[in-house]
Amino acid sequence: MAGIDFTTRSVPISDKVLNGGLNSTAGALGLQNNESSDLQNIDFNKFGSILKRNGYTSLTTTAVSAADIDGLFMFETANSGATVASLVAVAATNVFKMDGLDGTWDALTSGISITAGNQVDFATFQNILFMTNGADNPFNWDATRNGQASVGEVVAAISLTAAKYVEEYNNYLFYANVVVSGTNHTSRIYWSNLKDTETWTATDFIDISQDDGQQITGMKVLGDRLVVFKTRSIYNVFYTGDADVPFILPGGGKSNSAVGCAGPFSVQEVDNGLVFLSHDGFYFYDGLNSFKISDRITTTLDGMAPGKYVNARSLVQKNKNRYWCALTASGGSENDTVFMWDYFNNAWSKYAGMAPSAMTTLYTSGEERPYWGDYDGFVYRSDTGTDDYPLNSITDIDAFYWTNWKHYEDLVDKKGVTHLIIYHQISTATLTFAYSYDFDSDAQASFAVDISTSADTYGSSNYGEATYASSGGAVKRRDLPKGRGRVVRFKFSNNNASETFQVDGFGSLPHLETIE
Fold this sequence. Notes:
mainly beta, 7-stranded antiparallel β-sheet, 40 strands
């Protein structure tokens, strides 16, 4: 910066809140100060910090089966007054269980004929796990026997040979988007007798707007209603309490939602509503209306394959206010990008390095954990450790965060930023800091920042470095030796194995300049 005449004094600027998430849709000057112009493998906390996401580990050293994981679910049963939890996985032609996360997959093969490559839907009712995949007879497991073929009464009474979706609502079991007597009824729902999944009546069904050119793409209970998603609309089914007519759709049941669900397994309950993937992004359904929540990542979603939305897989991590949904990038054949919506901060992130073909959330020992399975038959516990383990092989996590383009309330003059003060948590790691002027997509310079110590001993501390919090926070100064422009953005990154970082904020010192 030597030899440049400044027209104004240096102005210190603070950025203390960084948890606004990705905004790839707004113009470069339209982002808020807390939003990111580009990021990957980044999480946020409630207090404004950004963090490198945690890793994942394989549950076993070998695959469950040499095939896609087509379904994953936590099955809890009441046994002798105690709750027993099993992780259930469907792969190839088998159902597998792992009791108490003991590290052993037990095959459940008795009486089941499963067609591989079809996503499985799950529902728990009366200590039985019911499963459907749209290709085979519905099958179930009650934790005391191996899996078995569809209950005989279903086939005999209604000739149902396949269903895509299953759900329990008000002590009835529901099947939706079914095949009956060889005919597809893509808008039909059937229900069992009250608390009796072995008794079905041929007339206990509703065709929901069967001639609208749409099919049912999922069911989910929300409060007092059973929400039925179709391709471009949403319907509400209500319980009447009448034994003869137990379920109705008032006024036809159609909600005010202008969209439907394009990703059947993207639907998750979040904060007394349902989040789901439609043809143009993610929405939140409150029981009557749908509201779009993904406007800020529309450009990023444009890079996904709409034809693969049907393969979307999701989970909700309530203890950290996170909704996850895995999608396939354009030109790809498998899910390779996980979109994470932090619904406390209303912030989006995207994760790389994962390939989820099925996802679920498991509760064990009072702890909530996210799990997912891949296309090679492995199942992983996520949000743990500092590294990824695809196919049980250690891999570093490539995480980066670009800030918004900062103009410091001036779009006329070029600026030079002399230095940046970085506030971070102490970690045994090296943080890479970089910067770029005037919409240059590449970093003009980058520096390694050791964030493992604070070096703040009185009388011997390094210039510009100090501890700022007894909990382990520290401060680092980094000079920006070259470049200037009308706008600037900064980058924090790390792709080293067994390392993590947390940036709590930064301060910059820009100068306005007149010399071109």
